[in-house]
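Marked as duplicate of an earlier ticket. Keeping the data here for the record.
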Amino acid sequence: MQCGYFDQGLCRSCTFMGTPYNDQLADKMSHARSLLAAWPDAIWLPPMQSRPDGFRNKAKMVVGGTAEQPTLGILDASQQGIDLTGCGILSPGLRSAFAPIAAFITRARITPYDVPTRRGELKHVLLTESPDGELMLRFVLRSTEALGRMRKHLPSLLAELPNLSVVTVNLLPEHKAVLEGDQEILLSGDETLAMRLGDLVLHLRPASFFQTNTEIASGLYSQARQWIDEVEAQSVWDLYCGVGGFALHVATPGRSVHGVEVSAPAVASAQLSAFEAALEDVTFAVGDATTLVAGATQDAIIVNPPRRGLGDALCATLEASGVPTIIYSSCNALSLARDLAAMPAYAPQRIRLFDMFPQTDHYEVMVLLTRRS
């Protein structure tokens, strides 16, 4: 894929932009194999490829410019806004929503936040699209100063974008390099965005995490389900379960599944999905995965940690657990390799790369681990 923003030097976030897709995939496979070379007996499955463009279901846009002419995109070296509303890796549904959103910013007279002077209100626009084409729109503001005007002009935005399912304001009063604050104010719609994946609906709340590539996320869940079925696991834990993607997909009659996640809103979403799907013996709890004590009562454990990996404590817990099977889904092969080395009782059997982030050097890897006899 070619990108005018990249060619003009306006945005360099996609470091592989312009590189043929097959070459990108080959580079990622080579990188992953080199990091996991300490386990030469593992079988590498064919990678799951992505669409090279239009794959992102979420846009995280920094707001710049003025209320009359807002920019949605990034800031340049001088902290001035660069508009990236035509970004080709974003889904068409996201791109088509930006013009009405920019017009709404102008009508509601929401002043973009100016980083150098620390003045203004609107810091970010966060937009997520569901597989059904519905949208969750979040305005990250410094204060509630513009809230009344936003409510006044919201009907016109909803008329222009009837697929807006959730509209919120997130408050981030501090001047710091984070994407959002802790307080969320619902302006319109439901509390969750329904992410329909096959027969299951995952409920995404404003601050909850969901993979940015819906098709690849479905592939991850399907692969985990296949491996769990192969080992005939009757009791499964899903650690770092988020909104329940892995846990809900591996659930089946006769199998108990328990998900653990530190985020209470994410757990509430997972519980709602399980209830709607009438899934029995599927439970979720708020908790810190690193403090759990696993034991031989589990047939399999699925782990999907953040980029930092599992850490020493959880690796030690899993190493001593006696659990026959572990499925490790990783967004960082560096921390994955470190964690695997810390669990020598487990041998990688199969490895598969999932190209979650085309045009960049990032990717996901899933490993099937079995306990050595």
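See parent ticket for discussion. The chain is about 30% helix and 25% strand.
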